[in-house]
Design goal:
single chain; 291 residues; alpha/beta; Rossmann fold; seven-stranded parallel sheet; two-stranded antiparallel ribbon; 9 strands; globular
């Protein structure tokens, strides 16, 4: 069976070879905000002048790709020159045997990456909300892995098994173990590390016992499995409203808002939230540009 390790000759980071930085949005649970988070990261980097490509590995739903298609349509119909990424989709193989399917998917994944490699600075990959071979390929290739989770023990269950009484971590769950294996494969392939960032989406503004317990679990996990956790996107209607127009909060000033009435104070606060998210990712190429 083919290993879920990408070709080190074509995709590994080398000192003498410039290649796009890979940001992977991964989570084996749907509804965590992967595609919305991915789109805001993409547009934020585009606004900073980076050339960005996207690879959608969920060819059935294509949430990120649909978001981008809506953006192009909105830009054309309203005659607005919105910054755009170069988008690609890699569907699952139609081969019936697992060996043939995985070989096919690995070849198409690497070929898609190579198509983008010569024309972009950053590639953002949106994984499906399930464990697939394509998703494992992307995790192994990641420079920064972003795992959005809702601020609840339902979502944390994919990261760790938690004692129901003491709320202490018993051990890592299946997804955390998969990331650990991806890190091992990456280290063996080219000696690189994967910066794993857990993004806490929909965190409530008010203090609550559940919020405090979730924070405690994430702090313990950070020490045990080597990941970072940062604030993500809040529970705001505006994030869901913008999908049909393909917009993000960073576009609202240019497009005069979703409804044409301009930006509210709530929108301004949410935009700061997105900028804070991007800064908290600590992407090394942004630091290099700033210096």
């Amino acid at each position: 069976m083919p290993d879920s390790e990408v070709n080190s000759e074509s995709m590994s980071q080398k000192k003498d070879t410039k290649r796009p930085y890979l940001i992977v949005l991964g989570n084996e649970k749907g509804g965590s905000g992967k595609s919305t988070t991915a789109m805001h990261i993409v547009v934020a980097l585009l606004h900073e002048g980076y050339r960005v490509g996207t690879i959608d590995l969920d060819a059935r739903q294509k949430s990120l790709t649909r978001y981008i298609e809506n953006r192009r349509a909105h830009s054309a119909s309203n005659e607005i020159d919105l910054v755009q990424p170069v988008e690609k989709v890699v569907p699952k193989s139609e081969y019936r045997t697992s060996d043939a399917a995985e070989t096919d998917e690995k070849e198409r994944f690497e070929a898609t990456y190579m198509e983008l490699a010569s024309i972009v600075d950053v590639v953002v990959i949106d994984c499906p909300g399930s464990d697939t071979f394509l998703s494992r390929l992307a995790h192994t290739a990641a420079d920064t892995l972003v795992t959005p989770v809702n601020d609840s023990f339902v979502d944390l269950d994919l990261l760790a098994r938690v004692d129901p009484v003491t709320h202490r971590v018993i051990g890592p769950s299946l997804y955390a173990e998969m990331v650990w294996k991806a890190r091992q494969r990456r280290s063996l392939a080219d000696g690189s590390t994967i910066d794993w960032v857990v993004l806490r989406n929909r965190v409530g503004a008010l203090h609550a016992k559940n919020k405090e317990r979730v924070e405690g679990v994430l702090k313990e996990l950070s020490k045990r499995i080597g990941m970072r956790h940062i604030p993500g996107l809040g529970e705001r209607v505006i994030y869901r409203e913008m999908f049909l127009a393909g917009l993000t909060l960073l576009d609202l000033k240019q497009s005069k808002g979703v409804d044409g009435k301009g930006m509210s104070l709530s929108h301004v606060a949410a935009r700061q939230e997105v900028r804070g998210l991007l800064n908290a990712l600590n992407l090394p190429f942004r630091k290099m540009k700033a210096s």
